[in-house]
Amino acid sequence: MEPRSQSRARAKRSVWRLIASWMILLLLGLAAAGFVYLRPYEADDAARLAMMGSAGVEVAKEAHWLRFEPGSGETGGAAKPLPGVILYPGGLVQPESYAPLASRLAEEGYPVYIARMPLSLAVFGQNRAEELLQREPQGDFVIGGHSLGGSMAARFAAAHPDRLRGVFFLAAYADEGGSLRDAGLPVLSLVGTNDGVLNRERMEAGRAYVPGDASYLSMEGGNHAGFGSYGPQRGDGEAAILPEEQWERTVEALKNWAPLRKEAP
């Protein structure tokens, strides 16, 4: 007959094995859920096509950037080279998704630099633009971003106002950590009327963190995902305009914004 002490020890081992099995299953479940939840929105066919470049746009992939350069000598009819446009992607959106917008800006003569963020989250790379400014210390730049990327771009701009010409928001807003109220920088905000993702209350609160003369433009029929090219986004409204129209309207708004306005030859 088995001693009582051995029987108790065996029972304890069984309990611990059961607990360990449940812990492993729980961790595997959390890992699977995290993979699904943190999986970025992937660039669609239109974005992949824009990544191939064109006769007037040169595209280069770098470790931390996607570069869209106007063709050799192209200034879009301006008297001198135009400022560069730094773009921080939205949260969990592949940077390639903004290639159609970047390509259109480059066709107008603006160099565009789309940041490649750790885990596709700008919150982990809000100072990514620092390396670009160090690489081109004499360059003129504006910075902005889509959704989460816009808020993180504002935080960078708030810390480096003397190195930038302005800040733009695409379905985004500034917060207290990136207050531009006294930064002395022009601010442009673009929002689609059919945006179902943007937190309107927080955006309204964000007005306290930008200059009083900030420009707010509403894009009729545009939605949240339409600034990029990655398909539908959870919770978003349905766009009433084609993606091409949203990109073109965005380019026009940026071209007419004071920091990017072209000087006549």
From TrEMBL:
Annotated coiled-coil segments of the chain: none
Protein origin, superkingdom: Bacteria
Q: Which SUPFAM superfamilies match?
A: alpha/beta-Hydrolases
An example of a GO molecular function for this protein is: hydrolase activity
InterPro entries per the UniProt record, alphabetical: AB_hydrolase_5, AB_hydrolase_fold
Q: Sorted alphabetically, which Pfam families does this protein's record hold?
A: Abhydrolase_5
Q: Which residues form the Alpha/beta hydrolase fold-5 domain?
A: 84-248
Q: What is this protein called?
A: Alpha/beta hydrolase fold-5 domain-containing protein
